[in-house]
Design brief:
- With 277 residues, this protein is α/β, with parallel strands linked by helices.
- The protein folds into two domains: 4-131 and 261-269, Nucleotidyltransferase, domain 5, CATH 3.30.420; 138-257, Nucleotidyltransferase, domain 5, CATH 3.30.420.
- Helices cover 42% and strands 23% of the residues.
- The chain has a five-stranded mixed beta sheet with strand order 3-2-1-6-7, with helices on both faces. It has a five-stranded mixed beta sheet with strand order 10-9-8-11-12, with helices on both faces.
Length: 277
Amino acid sequence: MDFTEINQKICALEKCLENAATVQVDEPLHVGVDLGTAYIVVVVLNRGKAPVACAMEFSHTVKDGLVVDYGGAIQTVKRLVNRIETQLGRTLERAAIAVPSGTGKANAKTHCYVVEGAGLAVTSVLDEPVAANAVLNIDNGVIVDIGGGTTGLAVIEDGQVVYTADEATGGTHVSLVLAGNYRISIEEAEALKKQQHRQQDVLAVVRPVIQKMATIVGRHIKNKRPEALFLVGGTCCMTGIEQVFAEELNLPVYKPENPFLVTPLGIALNCTLQENN
């Protein structure tokens, strides 16, 4: 698959982490809030749905898709929103959000309350892999979203989502294995797995965890016939993860250059101009 256009969109979003773009005073803005296990991310798009601002913060207020520190989550989102509002000179009014596939109504509502507590009206609540497909535009295949706490997937046939699932294993589990192997703290393990020159060493140590993730996906798609798998989510930034999945599932596996920002961008693309009732 040619990811050229997708990579260009992600690259434009990455640039917004450093410098926000200019927006018109009355221009409609599309906002996405991603409450992740490792990071909370806020993305803002302009009228034409091009990236204009992006802010993120490391956070442990969400665990395996569940909000475990309600007040802390609200304060983190508020800080990010305030930062972007200062950059743009605009007030953000509404946002779309996403939750892991299979999240119950009560837990999804908690995600809504966090964003509403930060001053934003929620326009829509999406499954994370479904949000990712707003960027990937897959007609047939499986999108696998591996975040800090969960591995979620969406099976897509003829452009329609026909099956979703989510299980509690992700980047946090990778960090735990690294911490145990190298006898270092979780914080040091988090930093280690992001070091480009250590990627081969990291993959060698955590391969069994990645194989487990692939096995989980394989179990959910065993009665399907997908053309390929598409990896997104922060954990998929790991060099070589796509090869492990391909070997385990005997399927073509693809990922964009920066899988981490695919889902946050997709969430923002789904922000409408009316509040969800």
